UniProtKB/TrEMBL annotation, chain A:
GO cellular component assignments: cytosol
Gene Ontology biological-process annotations: 'de novo' pyrimidine nucleobase biosynthetic process; 'de novo' UMP biosynthetic process; amino acid metabolic process
Residues engaged in binding carbamoyl phosphate: 54-55, 104, 134, 137, 270-271
Source organism: Ruicaihuangia caeni
InterPro entries according to UniProt: Asp/Orn_carbamoyltranf_P-bd (IPR006132), Asp/Orn_carbamoylTrfase (IPR006130), Asp/Orn_carbamoylTrfase_sf (IPR036901), Asp_carbamoyltransf (IPR002082), Asp_carbamoyltransf_Asp/Orn-bd (IPR006131)
Domain Aspartate/ornithine carbamoyltransferase carbamoyl-P binding positions: 2-146
The encoding gene: pyrB
Pathway connected to this protein: Pyrimidine metabolism; UMP biosynthesis via de novo pathway; (S)-dihydroorotate from bicarbonate: step 2/3
Family listed: Belongs to the aspartate/ornithine carbamoyltransferase superfamily. ATCase family.
Protein name, as recorded: Aspartate carbamoyltransferase
UniProtKB/TrEMBL annotation, chain B:
GO molecular function, one term: uracil phosphoribosyltransferase activity
Gene: pyrR
Function: Also displays a weak uracil phosphoribosyltransferase activity which is not physiologically significant. Regulates the transcription of the pyrimidine nucleotide (pyr) operon in response to exogenous pyrimidines.
Organism: Ruicaihuangia caeni
Full protein name: Bifunctional protein PyrR
Keywords assigned: Glycosyltransferase, Transcription, Transcription regulation, Transferase
Its EC number(s): 2.4.2.9
Amino acid sequence: MRHLVSTRELTRDEAIGILDVAEDMAGVAHREMKKLPTLRGKTVVNLFFEDSTRTRMSFEAAAKRLSADVINFSAKGSSVSKGESLKDTAQTLAAMGADGVVIRHSASGAPQTLARSGWIDAGVVSAGDGTHEHPTQALLDAFTMRRRVHGAAARGKGLDGLTVTIVGDILHSRVARSNLWLLTTLGASVRFVAPASLVPIGVESWPVEIGYDLDAAIEDGPDVVMMLRVQAERMHAAFFPNAREYAREWGLDDERAARLPAGTIVMHPGPMNRGLEISAAAADSPRSTVLEQVTNGVAVRMAVLYLVLSGEREVRS
Amino acid sequence: MAARTVLQHADITRALTRIAHEILESNRGAADLVILGIPTRGVALARRIAQNISSIEAVPFGVGSIDVTLYRDDLASQPTRVPAPTDIPAEGIDGKTVVLVDDVLFSGRTVRAALDALSDHGRPRAVRLAALVDRGHRELPIRADFIGKNLPTSKSERIMVRLEETDGIDEVVIES
């Protein structure tokens, strides 16, 4: 794998391959020695143009467990605030000898630009770009679902027949988009449930069913309910009247959580707005996978970094 | 390309029976023994050797597999390899005698990686090496303790080990 910037371009075999490698990586966390020598001598740059704590820490932990050197770059207080372009930043990193670049950017398409521009030879991994994609989040969500469904015998399997309902701010959500492509590739069927004002234009052409009523979606008994964070920082218009109305119509409160079938799992990519899109009791219940998602995130990112950074790199002529 | 079969089903079975006896002899029984196969074919061989050992001695011992992909020294110069599962018995390897099992012993680099992987899982009392075929051409100071067959080869020849579990047939073939 040369880069990972989108789940849309992954084939089913590639996706299952990444999840299988992540199974091996997950085993490392249970050993006394939690480090592998695999990427010794490689340098990974975390290039974060947008705030993130958990994704950056997760990538950093993953790279360090594989013995890579990690350089953290955040746009705040860097040369970017002095007006440096993405191209110049990239070429500076190339000159420092970066083997892999993990990039988060508020502009959709920035990772693709970096991967295809020829500015840099390093492998590019997207850590979320604008409202486009967040591929490693989708992979760790799929990994978490696969483990809950198949347990220890998860290797080699997809998510065939699984019904997944993703609830909330679809319009701004790169997590929803990446999950849609990946889960569909793996054989699951996806339904979006959202206020009509938070459904993107053009969604009819996506392989997804759209609903506007959370109670109706819960009646259908989905295998997975994924609650999305209400992204206040991206809400530049009045998409819904107020937080209380959002919580009443679209939030997973205690009463709705109690109506879910026994086996249904509740997911959230974090950070959670407790009391808004998810109640505290639903977030802390045994059916919630919030902390499993964090743990699995490290294993999945180890797998992605291994697959992107190991192996012969074709040298650009 | 000429192919020559050097070991058949009966030869492989006899070799593995002998190796099982040799392991028991050198370890003075099956106590504190852990047999670990190196994927892919080493795992099948480890299981067969373990079966032979339990038909001789009634003492329980550990069987599993140890993947070395993430410890290889050629990761940067080869196409990306996909790791195989590692399965260390629950009782661990601390203080045990570990017997690593592989199909072909060649450069010794796989075994070097396996020794590194093993030290990340614990501290065995001793580590031994069993191989179905030793074809020479070592690049590291490593030798096997238990060998099915020594096959002097030229470096241009290829040794193919096929086993019923993975390939549907038991045979060792030299291709030149």
